[in-house]
Structure formats: structure tokens, C-alpha cells
């Protein structure tokens, strides 16, 4: 009985580990950055059909985040975490699958502690 419980838990954690990279991989694939003539960096993050976010003038004091599209009922949506100061990308199909984007440096992280410390 214990062996079956261990196998079930192992399978559950393996699924969680695989799922947790799914959103991260999608955000990385949907990231596009460009510099303007003054070499100011801006990045956009398009994920699925329902999420589009931009961070304009990354690293500057007047940098800002623009949620162009974020639908809670869609496949992905974004939120802002007050505790860590990062944008949270959530996958509606895989509730444990998250990604975190730093508005300070534009980088994508798998966990909020990494995102917070990366700032």
C-alpha cells in the first residue's frame, strides 16, 4: 500500500514539475524585445490567445507595464504580485504552471523568489 502511495505521489510531483515549465516556456517563446533610437529597451510578451503585455523603457525610472490584453477567462492571464513586484503569468489549464516577469529587467523566471532576487 505504501509503494502505491509513493508511486502516485511521485507521478503527481512529476506532472507538477513538467507543468510548471509549460507556462515559463510559452512566455519565453512569446517574448520579443527591441531598442529604440536612444537604445531604450522595450519587450512584449504574447502568450496564448488571451495575453499580451509590454514593458516599455526597461531599467529607466519612467518604465511602465502595459497590459494590452489579459482575459481571466482566456487560456493565459496576467496579474501583479505586490509581495515580490513581479508580473505573474498564469495558465488556466495548468493551475500550478506559472511564470514571473520582472518589470525591472524584463527577464522571465520560474519562481517568484528568483524574480524578486533578480531585480
Features:
single chain; 119 residues; alpha+beta; four-stranded antiparallel sheet; 2 helices; 29% helix; globular
Overview of the structural elements:
- With 119 residues, the chain is an alpha+beta fold.
- It has 2 helices and 8 strands; from the N terminus they run H-E-E-E-E-E-E-E-E-H.
- The protein has helices at residues 2-29, 112-118, and strands at residues 31-35, 41-47, 51-56, 64-70, 76-80, 87-91, 98-101, 108-109.
- Strand 3 (51-56) and strand 4 form a beta hairpin.
- It is globular.
Q: Mean of the pLDDT scores?
A: 86
* Strand numbers in spatial order across the main sheet: 1-2-3-4
Net shape? globular
Any idea what the radius of gyration is?
Answer: 16 Å
How far is it from the N-terminal to the C-terminal residue, by CA? 46 Å
Helix content, binned percent: 25-40%
Q: Strand-residue fraction?
A: 25-35%
Instruction: Profile the largest sheet.
Output: 4 strands, antiparallel
Give, in order, the helices and strands: HEEEEEEEEH
Structural class: alpha+beta
* Total E-strand runs: 8
Write the layout of secondary structure elements.
Layout: H1 2-29, E1 31-35, E2 41-47, E3 51-56, E4 64-70, E5 76-80, E6 87-91, E7 98-101, E8 108-109, H2 112-118
Antiparallel strand pairs: 1-2, 2-3, 3-4, 5-6, 6-7, 7-8
Précis, in short:
The protein has helices spanning 2-29, 112-118; strands at residues 31-35, 41-47, 51-56, 64-70, 76-80, 87-91, 98-101, 108-109.
